[in-house]
Design a protein that fits this description.
about 250 residues, about 50% helix, alpha+beta, 4-stranded antiparallel beta sheet, 4 strands, 10 helices, Beta-carotene isomerase D27-like C-terminal domain-containing protein, D27-like
C-alpha cells in the first residue's frame, strides 16, 4: 500500500511541474503551402545509439526487404524512402507496426493486462518514450497530456529526426503516426494521439488521448510537402506526370 501511495504522490508532483502540451498545429489545407524549417545537422550518435539504430534497421528490413549500404541514420532514412516509394500506404502501415511489435517482444500485451487501466499508465508510457526513443526521433520533453488536463502523459519531440531529415509527410503519417496510434490502442490498451507540425518539425505525443480519424485530423494537410525528396524523385522520373499525393489511410 505504501508503494502505491508513493507512486501516486510522485505522479501528482510530476504532473504539477510539467509544462502544457504544444498547441495543435493548424497547417494550410495543402501541404505544398508549408515552408518547413531548415534542416539542422544530426548530432554524432553515441555507441549505444549506433547499436539501437542498427537493431532497428535489421528489424525493419525483415518487414520491408529493403537494404542500402549507407551507414547509420542516413542509411535508415534511405531505406524508409525506398520502401515508401514502391509500396502502398497499407503496406507501409503494416511493415511499421510489425517492426514495432517485433521490437516490443510482448511487453505491450503484458502492459495491457496489468497496467493499462491504471491512472499512471499514460505518464509511465510517456516517460519510457522519452528514455528509450531519442535515438530514433531526437530530444524529447515531458508535458501534460492535454491543454485542459493537468495530468502527465505528454511528450514533446523538439525536432523529429524522421520528419526533419526525411522531409516527407508520407513517412511521418504512414510509417510513424498511424501505426503507432493503432498499436498502442490495440496492443498496449492506452490510446495515444500524435500531432506533427510539418513546419517546425515538432511533434506532440499525448498518451491517454484518443486520436481523431485521419480524415478529421487538423494536423494533417493534403498532398505533399514542397521539397519532399520522394515526390521530387518521382517527378524527375516521370516529368509529364503531376506530383504524387500521399494516399489516404486505410
Amino acid at each position: 500500500m505504501a508503494a502505491w501511495r508513493c507512486l501516486a504522490a510522485l505522479r501528482l508532483c510530476a504532473a504539477l511541474s510539467l509544462p502544457p502540451p504544444l498547441p495543435l498545429p493548424t497547417p494550410p489545407a495543402s501541404a505544398s503551402l508549408i515552408t518547413p524549417r531548415a534542416k539542422q545537422p544530426l548530432p554524432a550518435p553515441s555507441l549505444l545509439e549506433q547499436a539501437a539504430i542498427s537493431l532497428f534497421r535489421r528489424t525493419l528490413r525483415v518487414h520491408t526487404n529493403v537494404h542500402t549500404s549507407s551507414p547509420g541514420y542516413e542509411g535508415l532514412l534511405e531505406e524508409l524512402r525506398a520502401f515508401h516509394a514502391v509500396s502502398t500506404a497499407r503496406e507501409q502501415h503494416v511493415a511499421s507496426r510489425r517492426t514495432m511489435e517485433s521490437l516490443g517482444i510482448g511487453v505491450g500485451s503484458l502492459f495491457r493486462r496489468v497496467a493499462s487501466r491504471r491512472g499512471w499508465a499514460p505518464l509511465a508510457l510517456a516517460a519510457a518514450t522519452q528514455a528509450l526513443l531519442p535515438f530514433l526521433v531526437g530530444e524529447m520533453e515531458l508535458t501534460r497530456r492535454a491543454p485542459d488536463d493537468p495530468r502527465g502523459g505528454g511528450v514533446l519531440v523538439r525536432r523529429c529526426r524522421v520528419l526533419e531529415q526525411g522531409g516527407c509527410k508520407g513517412l511521418c503519417v504512414q510509417m510513424c503516426k498511424l501505426p503507432t496510434e493503432e498499436l498502442f490502442a490495440e496492443q498496449w490498451g492506452v490510446p495515444v494521439r500524435m500531432a506533427p507540425n510539418f513546419e517546425t518539425h515538432e511533434c506532440q505525443i499525448s498518451f491517454g488521448v484518443v486520436p481523431p480519424r485521419p480524415e478529421d485530423d487538423p494536423s494533417l494537410p493534403r498532398g505533399c510537402l514542397t521539397n519532399c525528396p520522394i515526390a521530387k524523385a518521382a517527378e524527375a522520373a516521370s516529368p509529364a506526370r503531376p506530383l504524387p499525393t500521399v494516399p489516404p489511410a486505410v
